[in-house]
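Workshop exercise sheet. Pairs work together: one partner reads the sequence aloud, the other fills in the structure field after running the prediction. Swap roles for the next sheet.
Pair: D.N. / O.F.
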Amino acid sequence: MYPYLSSPITINSLEVRNRIVYPALGVLYSYDRKLNDRYYHFFQEKARGGAGIVTVGPVGVDFIGSGIIVLSLAEDEAIPSFTRLAALIKEHGAAPWVQLFHAGAYSHPFIIDGKEPIAPSPIFSKYSKATPREMTLEDIDMVQTAFVQAALRAKQAGFSGVEIIASGGYLITQFVSPLRNHRTDQYGGNFENRMRFPRELIERLREKLGPDYPLTIRMAGNDFVPGSNTDAETPAIAKVYEKAGVDLINVTGGWHETKVPQLPMDLPRSGFSYLASNIKRVVSVPVAASNRITDPDVAEKILQDGCADMVSLGRVLIADPYWPKKAFQGKKEEIRPCVACSQGCTDEIFSGKPVFCTGNPMAGYEGERKIEKSAQPKKVMVIGAGAAGLEAAVTAAIAGHQVTVYEKKDDIGGQLYIAGAPPHKNEIWEFIRYYRAMIRKYNISVRLNTTVDKDLIQKEKPEFILVAEGAEALVPPIQGVDDPCVLSAWDVLKKNPLLGKEVAIIGGGAVGLETALFVADRGTLRPDVLHFLFAYDAESVDRLRELMFRGTSRVTVFEMLPKVGKDVGKSTRWVLFGNLEKYGIQIRTQAKVSSIKNGTVMYETDGKIEQMQFDHVILASGSRPVQRLSQEVGKSGIPYKIIGDCVQISKINDAIHGGFLAALTI
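Structure field:
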């Protein structure tokens, strides 16, 4: 399977077993700049799963450029721990790499003991909310020397290669960008001068590491920041890197402060592979593509089409480290998906917390959460086939128990269908694909259209019960909620009914806002139609942009709180709000709806009663636990656990992790 993806590749003098790279991603498993057992288990699992290259990083070269939350190779005392890690990765056939890092202006003062960040020019950074000190020529030499010394430590520790980061808006990118480099000396001004810092750095690294040691660079294919480098300029940048001595160029997307989504579901699968192709056209060294490459078929096509020579699978290999082995063994359906939700990874990093994975309860817990075969397998009844019930059922089956899932509806998935309905959220349905494959693999019995009651429990005689009844839509105490024009967000997202031209959404939480997008998107141009009209100049670009966001319904959201979207993740909040604006969705905050009658919505705002007329009104006021069976199970005398939303309304990760942990207690 996947002959291109599985084939070896030579980088400088090193043969790598396949074309898959696990790239450097911050995971915050320590706050002292040092490796620990959690890191060892995490990276070893990536190697065990079959990746060709496993990159450890980001790894700081000095304190001012990385602070307390990034691993460091700034001192010789770090060499023994990195030696241990390199050996663990090599033990499973992967090539260990280190990514060397300096944030420049992106260094937050609070993580560098309140010190002043340094950068090419003293320009305020929106990312760190600080103005850095302009680097002197002495600073430049010191930083380059720090990179070289850290690289030599990585080589001494047994790492197969070293990567320097020239993407994300960090130090090297700041030197190369005319937006951030306003210097008037030999390191600023024209293209040659702006490239001087990275060129000198690569040349110094090449000289000290030797001609045969793999040296790679991760660069932006397009900064996606107005005034900075675009994909028109980046090929020339890549040519300088190649000439200076790099052996592979790993191409990713833009800066952290860009307004173009880099990781969420809004970015189509392999949406930035064109950036890698753009670089590959002008260099002779191997090129890797990055960002949202989730599916083996897509990865293979990138290589087969000649867009890149390798693929970077970052969050994808957090969601399932065994993605490579499963793909090569023809078990694609068994790959646990990365749905690009950003909740366990990016949102956690932005909150200063360790990374986990929404859909993989063992990610980040590889050393402590393990499924052991049960010495006394039990007959297990799982009530409810939503995310919590399905994860519990699979975990119990892996542990050797005899598992039967009972679901009152005609299919598995529960609220996953609702969660995946809004625009750019369809990836969530990949969880259902995965659980179907696991049900087949572990021969789990599933009884659909079956309502469990005490009589069925007595008849089946389970030895352990996992109750995952789920939740139901919450009906707010508003007069007229039984009006014919009123629908629930759940029904709209599941059934996609015909709606009128004017639609109200009551509730401005995540569900309400995503329902608003779902409604506003109906009747807009499909991607294939947009491609056709654009290709044949059938409409002007402005008209096409208008038709992309003008659907058949105008939407107004009512929220009684001062702000909407309080439960939306930090890293995706700006994307959601940008889309609400693009679709022209009206939002009325501090607007408490009091009644609905014949489509007339009465609401109070600023002490005044106002009204608006709508064709349909959609209730999105949240949900509440369903606990119809929980008490009955408690009276049965059979050991049980209650999991998922029927315990407390929460997020998908709580359901999946809760189901997993509950099954371990059987």
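Discussion prompt: The longest strand covers residues 53-60. What would you look at next?
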